[in-house]
Structures
1.
Amino acid sequence: MSAILLDGKKLSDKIKSEIRNETEILRSKNKKLPALSTILVGNNPASETYVNMKIRACESVGIKSKLLRLSEKTGTGELIDEIGKLNEDDDIHGILLQHPCPPQIDERKAFDFIDWRKDVDGVTTVSFGKLSMGEKTFIPCTPAGIMLLLREYGINVSGKHAVVVGRSAILGKPVGMLLLNENATVTICHSKTEKLDTIIREADIVVGAVGKPEFIRAEWIKKGAVLLDAGYNKGNIGDIEISQAAAKSSFYTPVPGGVGPMTIAVLLRQTLDSLKENFTPDGL
């Protein structure tokens, strides 16, 4: 049986179409529309690109978008003051602080000041704690997108050995928790892991989340493994040597067009869900 490509572009388009239909219904009934506020501190060119992409995505599905630009010299206190204003604004249902911030910013302190009900990017300690305990919460968008792809293609992770390569707070750790919550046996690897190749050779599911181009070699992949590449490196290269490994897999995500499109789709979905679940007590 040949490997099946997990088409994140196709699934993200489906999700965005569903969101667009819901916002059109809200508009037709003169109801409040979901709104996402993005905070951009400084002038990082890559961050500018990502923010513009998110703004266009919001506009394409009927979600209002507000961009708050802050100076490169902004301090943590000033940033927190601005987040506080957004927390209190009933017309804002999602808050996204674009990473990375300039070095003088205490990012964790800033992230954790976001009202968890508006944490549609799933970056607060509260959101991570709820996720770890299996409670309903907003989930970091890329891990959530990975799980949606698995569900869409009917891939059952229960009882499987999943190896996650990477341990960041917004990708490696939360995707490990999500897989664990679905009864996978999870190994999280990192830069200090010994005999990484041996561990990956035993994996039924491999998640590339380390941010190093083709770090996970094709010869490490066992036949029939599911490959989920969340890496995006210069030259449209992922963390897995997918050009060689795909043929050995049962399912795999391409780069680009796999996990990437799902990230923004989840952000949009969670912004709409925030409005529906937290800011419309009388229902939509």
2.
Amino acid sequence: MAYTLTENDGVLTFSIDRPEVRNAVNHDVMDGLERFIGKLEEDPDVKWGVITSEGGKAFCSGGDLEEFHSFRTAEDARPMLTRMTRLLYRLAGVHVPVVALMDGAAVGGGCELAAACDFRLMRSDAKAGFIQGTLAITTGWGGASLLYEKDGNHSRTLQLLMGAGVHTAETLEGLGWVTEVYSGSKEAALDRFLKQYAAIAPGVLRAYKAVAVRKFESADLQGRMLAESEQCAVLWESEAHHEAVRRFREKKQPSED
């Protein structure tokens, strides 16, 4: 299976299990993410949500270009982009706090997935970046809108998006995007983080998250994210994007002996 969904003592964990493709998102992963979000929305016994991955090398490398490379037009790409955008808006809007537990690289849509979470714990040797520009597209799952809404620093957000670079965990912590940088096991890091809130009633945590959600609603975050997704769909059918994908896929092909 492309993911696992587990619950332990009120902590619901969704883990992408596709290490062979750097935990790229495909339709199966989207199905699992939908199950995860639905349980966060409906189960009153869940206190925290956690998104992580398997393999220890990549948190998430974004959309699976091997699976989606056949999308040639905006019409082809739109259903995937729209579905994932709606899922990330729902993820951002659940009243349960959600942690992205990142023990490997996060690039492109992987950063958008992390941006939809409330907290980001990142292993000290990991790197991350909104690299969509290197593929001649923009963030397609609402990630830019999430950054603008949550960060509030216009020039810093533009630098992260326009620069399309990959940054160290330390740099991202300094920018305020990463909540904490950790060393050692991710399980221990998560345990330390959650213990800070152990004495706080779950209803209090949900209430504070609800304040943020009301702000998202009043600012029409969902509408902005969907408009962003549509812009990506338009760019998706450009020849520049198809050429960039072609070069990317060629680089990934094993060389012949």
3.
Amino acid sequence: MIRWLALLMVLALPSQAMAARDPILVPEVSQHEVKVRQGFIGTELLLFGAILDPSGVRAGRDYDIVVVLKGPTLPIRVREKERIGGIWVNAQTTDFQSAPSFFAVASSAPISKIVDDRTAAIYELGLPFIQLSPTGSIDPDEQRKFTEGLVDLRQRKGLYKEDPNGVKISGQVLYQARISLPSNVQTGTYTAETFAITRGRVIASAIAEVEVKKVGFERLVEVFSQREAFLYGLVAVFLSIGMGWSAGRLFAMV
């Protein structure tokens, strides 16, 4: 409620303050910090804001809104499975330097009706336009196959998603979009970038950030694994051996 009132106060600014030539995009997020605890089942983020254009251009009539929520980028290796002699084995592989751990796009209309492919690729407006930065020399067809495979895999895990009608516009000034974060999200800083687009051209953009972090016991385990990787590995091995021995003893007594 407080954030909506702040947006309305911006809308009530005197006309002299709105004499700027370019439109002003004012984005906000329902929560700037997501705490991951034991039993975390995911959460839903509300991305909202207002666009103020002194020329009188109105949202929903003269331009569209696109929201892109992107998680931390990480290097990843994608392997292709091949069946040889009835056994599935690793075949070809390719590496990507900067694959987003989470990627979601919501728009007020289908991307193909808002911008051309070139503009969509520049701003990463949609799953087909994610910039993954493959390493090494690879055939374009093979690269496309691995890219589509990675996107499909993460879509099925709920980490990549696209909603062509996910942005709702109110009063041709205010907008909102709801994006769900699944329980398996990567911790780190997420960027929520909003674009105002008219006639295939981005006329305004703005960024808000969301911090996803572990707290409590999960945070202690994460810090320990990072600072004392060797000891963490030993503890994990001994725990596995201990649990296996305990399970064997239990079943031997039955």
